[in-house]
Amino acid sequence: MAAYVDPLVVGRVIGDVLDMFVPTATMSVYYGSKHVTNGCDIKPSMAINPPQVAIDGLTDQLYTLVMTDPDAPSPSEPSMREWVHWIVSDIPGGTNPTRGKELLAYMGPRPPVGIHRYILVLFQQKGPLGAVQQPVSRANFSTRFFADYLNLGLPVATVYFNAQKEPIRRRR
Amino acid sequence: MSRYRGPRFKKIRRLGALPGLTSKRPRAGSDLRNQSRPGKKSQYRIRLEEKQKLRFHYGLTERQLLKYVRIARKAKGSTGQVLLQLLEMRLDNILFRLGMASTIPQARQLVNHRHILVNGRTVDIPSYRCKPRDIISARDEQQSRTLIQNYLDSSTHEELPKHLTLHTLQYKGLVNQIIDRKWVGLKINELLVVEYYSRQT
């Protein structure tokens, strides 16, 4: 357990976004051929399209996936914490988010300044969520409040990556 | 590597107190000519000034600081905190924090002139990165010990950070652990420095 949670504590994911939890599910995330591990760097150009997410578990279990950025617009002054990038609910275990219900369309990372953390959080649902209201704004979203509101409990798996603005290629 | 040799008071008037650069303090509202112009500081300027604070406090060149930022980016954890840890573990800074020198340029000179031993061996590189359990001591010569004794006597005895231990009578200091963020000797928002370097136009 410690091996899973330690990078999240070091990266301040636990604290800024989530409370301490015990991982009970396995989620693997890929952007193309790049495997997303805690604290790895992903170029925004690689993350334009949604990642391939594989969730282990039984088909009768349903999951909700949330992707947020706690460093918007800048890590030194995160006045929009958290900026929500993606919400998918009712994902059957052993499948991927394409089989779920997209509550909020995917938006790729676009960090304006600084190194931003992008956190993918997986919750196990107690049952089908039914009709869920879409967030009014992507800014000032709270993963804790969202989980509380839908009675999702603590996360079952989490992974985060870093991204920063790519340099503009200048023609000589 | 060349270091900054220009006027120090000019820097602290612009950037605020930099204990590593000079023990002088800017007088509050004394010099009207140097009050920065009214108006809102740009986002770029805020980040630049924070970066300059770090650079002048630790006595680094732009290239050195950029190298440290790159190392910090590769490390696990918060880039800003790793950057501060790397800078705080420099030998010249550790001598300054132990009180064996009253400023970092003074500590650099002690190291350069081969007055300092690390684990019993002479080290004359101010940027040497100290590790936990390193023993920093004065060379076993009268001149070295007198110099350090003078600095120890004249230094303002501020609370020693928790990651260091000083044995005054043996002219010896011990690095206990990697520094914790709250013991960094400079008031700085390290996130702004990381943002300065990640800002690509």
UniProtKB/TrEMBL annotation, chain A:
A biological-process GO annotation: positive regulation of seed germination
SUPFAM superfamilies assigned to the protein according to its UniProt record, in alphabetical order: PEBP-like (SSF49777)
Pfam (any one): PBP
Domain of life: Eukaryota
CDD domains: PEBP_euk (cd00866)
InterPro entries, alphabetized: PEBP, PEBP-like_sf, PEBP_euk, Phosphatidylethanolamine-bd_CS
Family: Belongs to the phosphatidylethanolamine-binding protein family.
Descriptive protein name: Protein MOTHER of FT and TF 1
Organism: Hibiscus syriacus (Rose of Sharon)
Lineage of the species this protein comes from: Eukaryota, Viridiplantae, Streptophyta, Embryophyta, Tracheophyta
From TrEMBL, chain B:
Subcellular location as annotated: Plastid, Chloroplast
UniProt cross-references to SMART domains, sorted A to Z: Ribosomal_S4 (SM01390), S4 (SM00363)
Keyword Ribosomal protein: yes
Stretches the record annotates as Disordered: 14-43
GO terms assigned for molecular function: rRNA binding; structural constituent of ribosome
GO biological process: ribosomal small subunit biogenesis; translation
Alphabetized Pfam families for the sequence: Ribosomal_S4 (PF00163), S4 (PF01479)
InterPro entries from the UniProt entry: Ribosomal_uS4 (IPR022801), Ribosomal_uS4_bac-type (IPR005709), Ribosomal_uS4_CS (IPR018079), Ribosomal_uS4_N (IPR001912), S4_RNA-bd (IPR002942), S4_RNA-bd_sf (IPR036986)
Location of the Small ribosomal subunit protein uS4 N-terminal domain: 3-88
Keyword RNA-binding: yes
GO CC term, one of those recorded: chloroplast
Ranges of residues in domain RNA-binding S4: 89-152
UniProt entry keywords in alphabetical sequence: Chloroplast, Plastid, Ribonucleoprotein, Ribosomal protein, RNA-binding, rRNA-binding
Gene3D superfamilies with a match to the protein in the record: Ribosomal Protein S4 Delta 41, Chain A, domain 1 (1.10.1050.10), RNA-binding S4 domain (3.10.290.10)
Role description: One of the primary rRNA binding proteins, it binds directly to 16S rRNA where it nucleates assembly of the body of the 30S subunit.
Family statement drawn from the similarity comment of this UniProt entry: Belongs to the universal ribosomal protein uS4 family.
Quaternary structure note: Part of the 30S ribosomal subunit. Contacts protein S5. The interaction surface between S4 and S5 is involved in control of translational fidelity.
Protein's UniProt name: Small ribosomal subunit protein uS4c
